[in-house]
Design a protein that fits this description.
The complex is a heterodimer of chains A (261) and B (609).
Chain A: E1 5-11, H1 18-31, E2 36-40, H2 48-51, H3 63-67, H4 73-76, E3 78-79, E4 98-101, H5 107-116, H6 120-133, E5 138-142, H7 149-157, E6 160-165, H8 169-184, E7 189-197, H9 203-214, E8 217-223, H10 226-231, H11 237-240, H12 245-259
Chain B: H1 2-24, H2 32-58, H3 65-89, H4 97-122, H5 127-136, H6 138-158, H7 164-187, H8 192-224, H9 233-240, H10 245-256, H11 258-283, H12 287-323, H13 329-340, H14 350-376, H15 385-394, E1 396-400, E2 405-407, E3 415-421, E4 424-429, E5 435-441, E6 446-447, H16 449-454, E7 461-464, E8 468-474, H17 475-484, H18 486-518, H19 523-526, H20 528-534, H21 540-569, H22 576-587, H23 590-608
Antiparallel strand pairs in B: 1-8, 2-7, 3-6, 3-8, 4-5, 4-7
Helix pairs in contact in B: 1-4, 1-5, 2-3, 2-4, 3-4, 3-6, 3-7, 4-5, 4-6, 6-7, 6-8, 7-8, 8-9, 8-11, 9-11, 9-13, 10-11, 11-12, 12-14, 14-15, 18-21
The chains are: A alpha/beta (261), B alpha+beta (609).
Chain lengths: 261, 609
């Protein structure tokens, strides 16, 4: 079995900036020289492929095809390092080992497929073969929001689970259940990442409070940034503006990922 | 009318001429009254000559009036005119050949003016013409003749060698020959224009001699002005470049008016005169005159001292405002000269004196400001000026930069400080080792004096908040002071008792604050700094109490605010029941049980691999 790690990025609700964070984290890890893959499970809502500059026309075989046995995993991997395009941030990924594994169907349909035909072991085998075929160090899974069976499957197979939440009551409530589930499923590395924190709050205090609440590592508190909202989905923000507060905090998360056993 | 105008020319022009010559006297050493005397003597010389000349003809020494005019008149007139010059030149207050030349000019012009009037009287119908013609010819010839003799006499006085009589003789011969030639030409009927040219040439000659004489005079000045007269090299430079005196003085005049500028000008002239006099003493042959010159030098010295005193404060301002002003081109010039003259001798001279005065005044000012600061302290405020001086004399003034420590907590207390200038913070550390500012101290306050008496280590540190000037009094100095000065001891005792009384204010304050805190009113925290400053916070224990209280309330307020903020964040408190319920909903499914099982197997497998 490969040493590559599965990193699931999850959030209880939509709108936490999950896809954006996933893409940026994956890119940052790739920048350190690691071989990284990103599995997208939802391209209908602003998909992660957009962040990597992948046109829907260019998209060939998908995860869907793989799960149905119509394509090998090799055929699905889209090499970002060879298709960086002209955008300033993404250009930094040139020559890096980063692959995107797009899905062509709704997440819900995937979970249906999973429920119907593919059990946990099959999914895990699929992910593991993805890791071994591409000799990946990290495979990021951008999961669908909420706690459905699909999410549970990805959590169960994760080596690292990063739960993204906003510092508000609802997110905290939902996150609390996810945290309990993750513990129940023995996820070895459970990380919390607070996003969209209003700058008026004391970030250190937010981190401490949430950490104490869940007894889990808060890897970063990222500010709500209009700069980022404006740029989002066009380019990889943390690559383009590495000095920005948001980017600096995000890059701080990379260390936790790299240090995770 | 015409006659009146002619008379005016006859009088005014010579007088004006004389005035201009006088102005040209480089160091203004000539005495104006001497010039007036020479003019008057010129009149008398004419009257005498008018008697003697006909008498010569009468006693048969000459054959004709023409002979008188061409030969005898020049001899008689030049001798008569020279009598007063001989007297003036040999006086002790005589300076140098320019004076001699001027005396000659004076007597010559005085003579010519009367002669002119006589001629005009004889030719009233052409009086104006006579006036103009004679002013520019006869006047100048008489002036030149006597001027030459004046120069010769002046030279003789400075010459101790045997050729002195020859110089006098030469002077007379030249003057008489020059005069005789003119008279002959006029008698021969030359054109008026030629006569005028002749006169002007004569004056040109005198001018040349005067120029040469002045250069010699300048050398004398440079050579002879020295520290005996409290004249520095720099001043000597100014004096010997006397042509630029108006440049030197113009900025002063512009700023302080002509009166002050004239004082400085007089001072410079008098310094020059001393230089000349000293040279004259060297050359002096007569002991009696030497003594007299010495006396004059002394008098000049007195005058100079008076002038210096009159200039006094003014000169200080001059240096501050003008001399230091980079805009004054002249002073740049002067600075350059002073620089080229090398380092001046110390202790005298106008420039040095001025610098000294500035320094003195600044020192005095500084001393006074220090005394004022000492007097402001509650400890010393009862002391007299004299006692304050005694305190100041016992201490050392020390300067501290921003963030520098005057004392640190725990240091042995062997001195105390009177803050003269600047402010500092009194700091201690809390249990975590963080700095707590417990007080702010400004100029006019003392720190650390209690420790001198109780001899305990410093209870707090003092760190400069800006540049601080402090008078440090060591324990020894302090006790010496108490030992030597009963008034100081009493004053300090009064200071202490004042403060003791003052401490009740602190206690009242604490009571007031306690009540406010109890009511949840923390507004006094914001207003505390000024309270601390107006209250003389030297009383260590009282202020410690006050500040402990202050920090306590500050922390209470902080905690309260923290609690408020925490509430704001923790409004997203987790509903634990709902959490539990949702968790159970998910985990109770068959799907989950299977998943969990599979996951466990997977983890085990991964661990094994």
């Amino acid at each position: 079995m490969s040493n590559g790690k599965i990193v699931s990025i999850h959030s209880f609700r939509g709108g936490t900036g999950k896809s954006n964070t996933t893409a940026n984290l994956a890119a940052q890890v790739a920048l350190t020289g690691k071989r990284v893959g990103v599995v997208d499970t939802d391209i209908q809502s602003p998909g992660i492929h957009v962040l990597f500059g992948l046109d829907e026309d260019k998209m060939g075989k998908t995860m869907n095809d793989f799960l149905h046995g119509k394509a090998t995993i090799k055929e699905i991997g889209f090499n970002i390092g060879e298709n960086t395009g002209g955008d300033e941030g993404r250009a930094k990924l040139k020559g890096k080992n980063l692959w995107l594994f797009p899905a062509s169907i709704r997440g819900r349909e995937i979970s249906q497929i999973l429920r119907e035909g593919i059990d946990f072991n099959k999914l895990n085998e699929g992910l593991q073969s993805t890791i071994s075929e591409f000799n990946l160090d990290y495979l990021f899974i951008d999961t669908h929001p909420g706690l459905n069976e699909e999410t549970l499957l990805s959590i169960a197979t994760s080596d690292i689970l990063i739960i993204i939440l906003r510092p508000d009551n609802q997110d905290l409530q939902g996150t609390s259940v996810t945290v309990d589930i993750a513990r129940s499923l023995d996820v070895p590395n459970l990380f919390l990442l607070v996003n969209k924190a209003l700058p008026k709050y004391d970030f250190a205090k937010i981190r401490d409070d949430i950490q104490n609440q869940f007894n889990a590592q808060v890897t970063g508190v990222l500010p709500l940034s209009f700069d980022m909202a404006e740029n989002a989905s066009k380019d990889l923000f943390s690559l383009r503006y590495p000095e920005h507060e948001w980017s600096k905090s995000l890059i701080g998360v990379v260390d936790f990922i790299l240090a995770a056993k | 009318m015409v006659v009146a105008f002619a008379l005016l020319i006859a009088f005014a022009v010579p007088v004006l001429f004389l005035f201009l010559l006088n102005r040209y006297d480089l160091y203004q050493t000539g005495k104006f009254q001497h010039n007036v005397i020479t003019l008057a003597c010129g009149f008398f010389a004419y009257i005498l000559a008018a008697q003697i000349n006909p008498a010569i003809l009468n006693i048969g020494l000459a054959n004709s009036w023409d002979q008188i005019v061409r030969i005898w008149a020049p001899i008689v007139e030049e001798i008569l005119k020279s009598l007063i010059i001989i007297y003036l030149v040999n006086r002790a207050d005589f300076n140098y050949l320019v004076d001699g030349a001027l005396y000659g000019f004076g007597v010559g012009i005085g003579f010519a003016v009367v002669e002119n009037i006589q001629y005009m009287n004889n030719n009233l119908e052409i009086a104006l013409l006579v006036a103009v013609a004679r002013v520019f010819s006869t006047n100048l010839v008489h002036a030149t003749g006597s001027g030459v003799i004046g120069i010769a006499l002046a030279n003789q006085r400075e010459d101790k060698s045997k050729r002195a009589p020859l110089i006098i003789l030469g002077g007379y011969v030249i003057a008489i020959f020059f005069h005789a030639l003119f008279n002959s030409m006029v008698s021969g009927g030359i054109a008026i224009l030629v006569a005028i040219v002749y006169g002007v040439l004569g004056v040109g000659l005198i001018y040349f001699i005067i120029r040469r004489g002045m250069n010699i005079q300048k050398q004398w000045v440079a050579e002879k002005l020295d520290m005996k007269d409290r004249v520095t090299q720099q001043e000597t430079q100014v004096v010997s470049n006397i042509e630029t005196i108006h440049e030197v003085l113009s900025p002063i005049e512009k700023r302080f008016g002509p009166e002050k500028a004239n004082l400085v000008r007089s001072l410079i002239y008098k310094q020059a005169e001393i230089g000349i006099k000293r040279k004259l003493i060297d050359k002096e042959t007569s002991e009696a005159r030497k003594a007299e010159v010495h006396k004059i030098i002394e008098e000049l010295g007195d005058d100079i001292n008076k002038l210096r005193n009159q200039i006094g404060i003014y000169s200080m301002m001059m240096v501050r405002e003008v001399y230091a002003g980079a805009d004054a081109q002249v002073f740049n010039l002067l600075n350059a000269r002073i620089a080229s003259a090398g380092t001046g001798q110390k202790g005298g001279g106008i420039w040095d004196r001025v610098t000294e005065k500035v320094k003195d005044a600044e020192l005095q000012e500084l001393k006074q400001s220090r005394l004022n600061a000492i007097k402001e302290t509650s400890l010393f405020k009862e002391l007299s000026e004299e006692a304050l001086n005694a305190v100041a004399a016992k201490g050392f003034v020390k300067n501290y930069q921003k963030d520098e420590a005057l004392m640190r907590k725990g240091d042995p207390a062997d001195s105390f400080f009177v803050i003269l200038k600047g402010s500092l913070k009194i700091v201690t550390t809390d249990s975590k080792g963080d700095e707590i500012i417990i007080n702010k101290v400004d100029g006019g306050e003392t720190i650390g004096e209690l420790a001198l008496i109780d001899q305990l280590p410093r209870s707090a540190g003092a760190i400069a908040l800006e540049n601080v000037e402090a008078l440090e009094l060591t324990r020894d100095a302090f006790f010496e002071l108490l030992d030597e000065r009963l008034d100081v001891s009493l004053g300090i005792l009064r200071g202490f008792s004042n403060r003791l009384r003052f401490s009740t204010t602190y206690i009242e304050k604490v009571i007031d604050w306690s009540q406010k805190t109890a009511e949840g009113d923390y507004s006094f925290l914001e207003n505390t700094q000024p309270i601390m400053n107006t209250a003389n916070s030297n009383d260590a224990k009282a202020s410690q109490l006050l500040f402990t209280f202050y920090s306590m309330v500050s922390k209470v307020k902080e905690r309260e605010e923290g609690l408020k903020q925490q509430l704001e964040i923790l409004t997203f408190q987790i509903d634990q029941e709902r959490r539990k319920k949702e968790f159970e909903e998910i985990t109770s499914t068959e799907f989950y049980s299977k998943l969990k099982e599979q996951a466990q197997t997977l983890r085990k497998k991964r661990q094994e691999s």
